[in-house]
Specification:
Largest interface: A-B, 39 and 39 residues
CATH topology of the largest domain in chain A: Tetracycline Repressor, domain 2
Oligomer: homodimer
Number of domains of chain A: 2
Number of helices of chain A: 10
Radius of gyration of chain A: 19 Å
Order of helices and strands of chain A: HHHHHHHHHH
Number of strands of chain A: 0
Largest sheet of chain A: none
Chain lengths: 194, 194
Amino acid sequence: MTGAKRDTYTPDSLLAVAVTVFNERGYDGTSMEHLSKAAGISKSSIYHHVSGKEELLRRAVSRALDGLFGILSEEAALGGTPVRRLEYVTRRMVEVLIAELPYVTLLLRVRGNTDTERWALERRREFDHRIAELLRAAAAENQVRTDVGVRLAALLVSGMINSIVEWYRPGGGPLAERELADAVVRVVFSGVRG
Amino acid sequence: MTGAKRDTYTPDSLLAVAVTVFNERGYDGTSMEHLSKAAGISKSSIYHHVSGKEELLRRAVSRALDGLFGILSEEAALGGTPVRRLEYVTRRMVEVLIAELPYVTLLLRVRGNTDTERWALERRREFDHRIAELLRAAAAENQVRTDVGVRLAALLVSGMINSIVEWYRPGGGPLAERELADAVVRVVFSGVRG
């Protein structure tokens, strides 16, 4: 391919390019040609790294899902009172969203037209179920309200956190990130009334 | 067009078909051919109703925006304490989202590639600013927390409400709708801890 770069991509750096293109054009609207142009290497060079765009999607959403599910295995998510665990998980969800912003953004835009997309949606539902379980454990000990169903509360909490991808732009530094995580924890647990 | 229906569409019924297609395929991914097939009438029949797909988009997002901005002119949004007005607006946002689900869904997916899309994004931002103003008025009277910025709180509240389009499916009836609105008001104002 005339004008193509020498292919010095690693799996991670190629994935980063692909995710940017997927988020800009939508996964359905992205062709191998678009990926080739964005990466500056030929399509055959891309096929040297991956079997096709669905493999790139699978790797990208896996990275987001691994980040999110990883939270649930962290020490503070496993021990302590249910409400403390829930608070920890809420904070970490915001942190993972910020740390893996393009990957989580892509995960949240997946609509379910391919096996990989359906699998990603299923894994998202599983994650929300895990949040609902934490809420259920906290409700059983009267640490959270019981007049809102745990499944609905889990969807509302996830929805609030996920909506951050719509407007958050990196660059505020660790302090801004900490403030955002603090704000989300406050609003989720005590509401705007405080 | 062979097999085409006689064109008995009203502006509203044609809009309903277009919005369904836009939500399924994405606005960018929808051609006049797709709209013609979905409506079962020829493209020239569609052009008899509208100048093109951007006019359909503008009408559709206008319907969602009119619903949302209309809330702010309702009596209970204009009178009473700021926190009561905010509570009223929160509840009505959920109700409008449910009543105009496909239109609000489309509005929330708009990304900004055309004049109409950029205008819709600008109007959404304006709406969030109005919510932030209500929060600011409530904070000035110590009716809401002041340790989270009003702009951020407005984005989080809107984000929670907007996320409902991702999973809500109509058919639960007025009671289910009421329960959802109640739950959102509770979580927004008092959090999951209650």
